[in-house]
Design goal:
Blueprint: E1 5-9, H1 16-30, E2 33-41, H2 57-72, E3 78-84, H3 87-97, E4 102-108, H4 112-118, H5 120-128, E5 132-138, H6 141-144
Parallel strand pairs: 1-2, 1-4, 2-3, 4-5
Helix pairs in contact: 1-2, 3-5
């Protein structure tokens, strides 16, 4: 019997710790293989193989941070940096190709028009992924600060 496979999709440095904490817990409980993934979205007019190292810089930094956190927690982790025109399609394709059992991703609540525009990746993955999808609703920076009346 093969091991369970999990992907944690990372998007911004602010929430790497939160998403990895959840992924580590699930990895330990299920003894799963864990891959941290970052998808660099490239504009539709540009080729995916464009020679622009600056496009991948944020992803490399986030995946490097994921490796550091995994090492500190003694959790084996693989990393993957992809380029795509649409992050949702890339995540679904990777989940299909790698026969992933669970895809973990974060979601930021937004208001109005921003909700319609920025929620598209989560909506696409939830509709098309060939596996279970766990979405953690991430706190905004405003809500993440400790409350002054809590000791």
């Amino acid at each position: 019997m093969s091991r369970t496979k999990l992907i944690v999709a990372l998007k911004d440095a602010e929430h790497v710790d939160d998403l990895l904490k959840l992924a580590f817990h699930l990895t330990r409980v299920t003894e799963a293989e864990l891959t941290a993934m970052y998808v660099t979205e490239v504009g539709p007019g540009l080729p995916l193989d464009i020679d622009a190292e600056v496009l991948d810089q944020a992803g490399k930094e986030i995946l490097s941070r994921a490796c550091q956190i995994a090492a500190q927690n003694s959790v084996p982790i693989a990393t993957k940096l992809l380029r795509a025109h649409h992050a949702g399609r890339a995540l679904v394709s990777e989940a299909t190709d790698q026969k992933i059992d669970l895809l973990i991703m974060g979601y930021h609540r937004r208001q109005g028009l921003a909700e319609m525009l920025f929620g598209s990746t989560v909506r696409y993955v939830a509709r098309h992924a060939p596996c279970r999808v766990l979405v953690e609703v991430l706190p905004t920076t405003l809500h993440k600060a400790p409350l002054p009346w809590v000791a």
